[in-house]
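Task: complex structure prediction.
Instruction: return structure tokens for all chains below.
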Amino acid sequence: MDATIIASAAINGLLLGGIYTLVASGLTLIYGVLHIINFAHGSMLMLAMFGVYYLLTLLGIDPYLSIFIMVPAMYVFGYLLYKGLIGRLSSGKDENILLVTLGLSILIENLALMFFKGDSRTILVSYSDRMVELGPTLVPLPKLISFVVAMVLCIALGLFMQRTDTGRSIRAVAKERVGARLVGIDVDRIFAISYGIGLATLGAAACLMMPIFYVSPSVGHVFVLVAFTVVVLGGMGSFLGAVVGGLIIGLTESFGGLFLGESMGQIGISLIFILILLLRPSGLFGARQ
Amino acid sequence: MTSTLKPVPWALHAGVLAVAVAFPFVFPSSFMVNFGVMALFYAFIGQSWNISGGYAGQLSFGHVAFFGVGAYAATIVQLRFGLSPWLGLPVAALAGALVGGVIAVLSFRAGLRGSYFALITLAFAEVLRIVSNSIGITGGGLGMLIPLKVSSENFQFAERSGFYFLILVMAAGSIALAEWLGRSRFGAQLAAIRENEDSARALGINVFAEKVKVMLLSGTIGGMGGCFFAQYFLYIDPLIAFGADKSVEMLLVSMIGGAGTVYGPLVGAVLLALVSDVTRSLTQIQGLSLVLYGALLVVIIAYLPNGLIDLFTRKRRRRDGAKK
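Output:
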């Protein structure tokens, strides 16, 4: 096979992986701290994407500027959702949280279907079709931007966890819940903050994705299994893992499509997910239990 | 979940069966019979989920894998090998059991529990969907159309009530199985595993073997449900066979009706069929019935962990308590 085809598949895979990293970084944070599997992650992304869509179509706000609205808005939404609903209803059992978040995702998705109808929508901005030359291939500028910002965002999240007091408290709660409570950390608040940050990353992801992707009430489905695969592959709770995992999954999808065809090519992601869970559940960078 | 330990009185079984048998005679319109078929069908595949998810506590998000494999196995036997569609039923049961066994052995061998098991089942169903979408024998993305040839030897009944009584027998069998689980040693072992796997092992229960067994059973039921579905609608494609929404519906009907109870899936399925028919006839709004169902699931987990059926048993328990 031609080397330029392979090179351009690799570049496209990496760019796609950037988007997956973006979606998965919030999921890995939520899992790493709360040890809960947020099944509503995909539908929250969908909500954020509709937010970006309406900010542009109703108020004329550019998707990239919407970051400054969507990130705090999703943070507050996540914080309140955890405080008011998820934390209270699940009474701490991990399977209950899985089911509560499943119930929430069914609820949110179908509410979206009621209000926004089922059709896919895209937005058009002046830079939608701008292409840049990258090695042997042309890539859309918004894709490149989303990739760069995704990487910056993961580094920023990593620094936040290492350097700030809140980040240290989050890590303390993740490691040793009871101990953290004993040294005076408000564990419930840290849970809500982590859930809020997890959704805030989705706010950023939505702003970066809208110029290149579509939104529909079921768009979250596209990302649920992929995001879980990235998180499991990288290691639950690891941002470095989210980056490496996202890129590997992006490449897998791109090369899967190239070598196995459109339909069978999708199988790589699910197979990686199964194999990792069966053989190395701690992932590439996760702490072994 | 204590309700599983308390057997359902025989009079209740007889009453429910009598109502179910009388239903198509009281409401003979094809709309109503179709309603009954769908309610019983969801009760049947819901019981498949309930046996492993409710009785044994092995939460699955990918139960549609059994359903889809059964649907395809039966249809392939009929269309590709030209055998009687009735043979599809045992073939589907075997195929479902096989997939259930393979998933169980792999996942439980690796020690996956709780949320991890739920997610890996989802991934297995997804793999099956992609494979069925990509290979020739399943008809790929176009799916398979079963030609219409009405005769009961051909699994196609002239009257809808033929399908109704078939699915009634299947659903009654699945309820009998659940009842047996509530009374048998096997069922008690499953309950022990559900409540605390480590203590169950300490008690000498072979946790791995029992969990594999329950998945074999669950897969058998799911596979048969797939065969029925394919013959009722005469069509199957990868999204119908392996779509995540059916996994969710199987989970929903048993969680909402009452996971780990004999009649949970039936109660949940009748409610699901009612709610979706009523909302569809009253409004044109898409998605309303699932909004109600999603909200109901959240409420149930928070306040009624044994499902709607708890509303009745709780009253009975209180009355029993008052007598003493």
